[in-house]
Amino acid sequence: MVGTAVRRMSIWVLFIVAAALPACFTSDRAAAALTEPVTLVAVQMQVQLADYQSPKAFDAAVQQYTKAAMRTRGDGPRLVAFPEDVGLGLVVMDDYAAVKDCGSWGEAASLLIGMYWPQVYEIMVQYGCSPMHALLLLKGDRVAQVYYDTFSQVAKEHHVTLVAGSAPLPGPDGAIYNTSLVFGPNGKLIGTQRKVHLIDLEGPLGLDLTPGPLEDIHPVDTRVGRVGVAICYDMFYPDVVEKLVAEGARILVQPSFNPQPWDPWQEEDWKRGIWTAVGTHPSVVAGVIPMAVGGLWEIAVEGVSSIVGGCFDTPFDGYLGQAASATEADIVAAEVGVPKR
Questions:
Q1: What pLDDT band is residue 7 in, cutting at 50, 70 and 90?
Q2: Domains of the chain, CATH where assigned
Q3: Measuring CA to CA, which residue among 83, 100, 94 is closest to residue 56?
Q4: Whose CA is closest to 197, among 155, 227, 236, 158?
């Protein structure tokens, strides 16, 4: 009796599944007709001081990773995203020989402040800022030019939408923002995003950066759809995420620089960011997290880059792709469908 009941139940379940399949396929075909494929790529870049010894060295590193990103499989227009603080090391590019043997970031910064003390002091008096902030202002225009030129040229050469991680860039009235630039396939700057919520490393006792204004947060219209960039910690804050989603972001990008060991607690805690944002906002198609690994002096960074999207029902956990390691360079790519415009 039990065996007969089980067989009858199995047949009934198969009948229900079979009846549902045409509707699912029809739904998939209908969805495909309303979307177009795009390929999203997260660059897990190995940060190392030698890549910042000159503009040429920095360009070579960015080119190497971009070429690897362009070799990944996927149809449609392509977005390539680099990690947060990819441009931070450019602060030392004209003084690499002087700082390369320093034992820490603090030692290197102190050495540079001493080397440029008259100019640093003048900036401190002008803006009432710390020596570190003044140093970043002193170096800011040079950093901005190399950062901009490198990523603009790479975007144009590879004809790709490029989220250029971030760099400490000068703003008005003596501000220094953790800034992400977005370039179109023609190499033109199409978006600028400044980090709103800073971590301790970026605070008064660290880099002494300026928090970006929340009202300046806006998604960017790109060839792959409307993209919302929230730099690292910003993606953990509802004020930033809700603003991007409310303004129509279809793809979220979280360039990240995590100065902590990537242990099980960190891995789970990071789900509060883009993983949660994509999972709770149906209008968002996918999220991209390019994470830095390696580090500068004693500032070590770890993380697993990933692309998040789709249904979060069991057994699918939301990840369309993840890096193989939290400490080694990698490229993560996934093809998704975005609504046609």
A1: very low
A2: 39-87+149-339 (3.60.110.10)
A3: 94
A4: 236
| Interatomic CA distance for residues 292 and 121, integer angstroms | 33
The string of pLDDT tens digits covering residues 290-341 is 999 999 999 999 999 999 996 555 446 889 999 999 999 999 999 999 887 7
pLDDT of res. 312: 55
What is the reported pLDDT for 311? 58
* DSSP letter for each residue of 218-257: --EEETTEEEEE--GGGGG-HHHHHHHHHTT-SEEE--B-
What pLDDT is attached to residue 6?
Answer: 35
What's the Rg (C-alpha) of the chain? 23
**Tokens 């901009």 sit at which residue?**
148
Instruction: Locate 321 and state its tokens.
Output: 């792709």
Alpha helices in the chain (DSSP H): 2-34, 55-70, 96-99, 105-115, 117-127, 131-158, 238-246, 264-269, 274-280
| Burial class of 89 by CB neighbour count within 10 A (0 to 12, 13 to 18, 19+) | buried
Q: Give the position of tokens 């392509």.
A: 78
Phi, psi (deg, nearest 5) at residue 130: -80, 165
**Rounded-to-integer distance, Cα 40 and Cα 161, Å:** 10
* Residue 68 in this model has a pLDDT that exceeds 60: yes
If phi > 0 it is left, if psi is from -120 to 50 it is alpha, else beta; for residue 295 that is: left
217 with 193: CB under 8 angstroms? Answer: yes
Percent of the chain as helix, strand, coil, to the nearest 5: 45, 25, 35
> Residue 161 corresponds to which tokens in the numbers above?
């939408």
Whether 231 contacts 209, CB under 8 Å: no
Rounded CA separation 111/128 (Å): 21
Rounded Cα gap, residues 154 and 185, in angstroms: 9
Q: What are the distances in angstroms from CA 15 to CA 22, 145, 170, 231, 301?
A: 12, 64, 65, 49, 52
